[in-house]
From TrEMBL:
GO terms for biological process: fatty acid beta-oxidation using acyl-CoA dehydrogenase. Residues 5-191 form the Electron transfer flavoprotein alpha/beta-subunit N-terminal domain. The keyword ATP-binding does not apply. This is Electron transfer flavoprotein alpha subunit apoprotein. Keywords: FAD, Flavoprotein. The keyword Amino-acid biosynthesis does not apply. SMART domains: ETF. Its cofactor is FAD. PANTHER family: ELECTRON TRANSFER FLAVOPROTEIN ALPHA, ELECTRON TRANSFER FLAVOPROTEIN SUBUNIT ALPHA, MITOCHONDRIAL. One of its GO terms (molecular function) is electron transfer activity. It comes from Halalkalibacter nanhaiisediminis.
């Protein structure tokens, strides 16, 4: 059954985040032949609209407003509600990101709609989209559908492949003027502090440090390794609790969930709560001086040794390549 689907694109530092294109691919499945409308919110984001069209949306509604320059719950919620009012979508897809996690439950509640979060795949069964999401810290998966009303879904970054870019695709780009009032909170940063501009949840390479790194200075070589590999630095809660780094870098059950191609666990023991956030990484490399550390049970490659010796050696080797 064809549906009208809105896909909310995410803009960070003037660029569309990859999860936006993955959300478009998800939107196409849910639309099941219906129209996919991209929505872009920002201070001046019209120039990005064609990228969404190249990745598969049929048309784009752009909302430019100074209050949308940085992410704030109030401004984004109000702007999106005004877009929905005009468009009457049957489904809305967002990334399972700080923005998506923040606004989707609020919007779904306002519209008396159902929300399925952290989706990793979608299929059409009969006429209806069925969403798969991990449960029990990724140990099991459940399939969910929404029986009636508007459907909201957030998709986990790096899990649903975006469609091939087609620069010959054309579509209408319209701008909508919105009225944003009573803004309460300005959140200065969109949660993810990444290194070298690489977003932690979208990074293909993650170098995560644990309590074994011993200090914030100890993270410096990890940062160097991440820079070398075009990756992002992450951390265990142990490292965050010890104040070696910011909590925005925490990976795990109560932190971020990452699924990079390559994950380095450096001085991380491998507690179950940490594994919940990274065990679906494609290749896991563990560096730990304790050969009995549980992280080695999930690692594809294990290096038993002192991280303060191993990481500089790795950097040296990689620079030589
Ligand atoms: P440790 O367990 O102390 O491990 C440090 C490791 O470093 C050790 O294995 C040690 O052998 C190694 N090491 C030390 N020095 C060196 C060296 N020089 N070279 C090489 N290796 C070295 N944790 C998370 O990470 N994310 C979460 O989201 C999370 N959520 C939680 C939620 C709840 C409700 C609870 C109860 C706990 C949660 N935790 C979470 C905490 C989790 O249980 C662990 O305490 C935490 O992951 C441990 O962090 P760590 O591996 O850095 O530290």
């Amino acid at each position: 059954m064809a549906r009208k689907v809105i896909v909310v694109g995410e803009v960070r530092s003037g660029e569309l985040r990859n999860v936006s294109f993955e959300a478009v691919a998800a939107g196409k499945v849910v639309a099941d032949g219906g129209e996919v409308v991209g929505v872009l919110l920002g201070e001046s984001v019209t120039d990005l609209a064609n990228q969404l069209i190249h990745y598969g949306v049929d048309r784009v509604v752009v909302v430019n407003h100074p209050e949308l320059k940085s992410f704030t719950t109030d401004a984004h919620q109000q702007a999106l509600l005004q877009v929905f009012d005009l468009e009457n979508p049957e489904a809305v897809i967002l990334g399972h990101t700080a923005l998506g996690k923040d606004v989707s439950p609020r919007l779904a509640m306002k519209l008396n709609a159902g929300l399925i979060s952290d989706v990793i795949s979608i299929e059409i069964q009969g006429d209806e989209p069925v969403f798969t999401r991990p449960i029990y810290s990724g140990k099991a998966f459940e399939k969910k559908k929404i029986n009636e009303g508007v459907l909201f879904a957030t998709i986990r970054p790096n899990n649903i492949a975006s469609l091939a870019k087609d620069e010959t695709r054309c579509g209408d780009v319209s701008t909508l003027t919105v009225d944003l009032k009573n803004l309460r909170t300005i959140i200065k940063e969109i949660v993810q502090k990444s290194t070298g501009g690489v977003d932690l949840t979208e990074a293909k390479v993650v170098i995560a440090g644990g309590r074994g790194v011993k200090s914030s200075e100890g993270f410096k070589p990890l940062q160097d390794l991440a820079n070398l590999l075009g990756g992002a630095v992450g951390a265990s809660r142990g490292a965050c609790d010890a104040d070696y780094c910011d909590y925005s870098l925490q990976i795990g059950q109560t932190g971020k969930v990452v699924t990079p191609d390559l994950y380095f666990a450096v001085g991380i023991s491998g507690a179950i709560q940490h594994l919940a956030g990274m065990s679906n990484s494609k290749t896991i490399v563990a560096i730990n001086k304790d050969p009995e550390a549980p992280i080695f049970e999930v690692a594809d490659y294990g290096i038993v040794g002192d991280l303060f010796e191993v990481v500089p050696l790795l950097i040296e080797e990689l620079k030589a390549v």
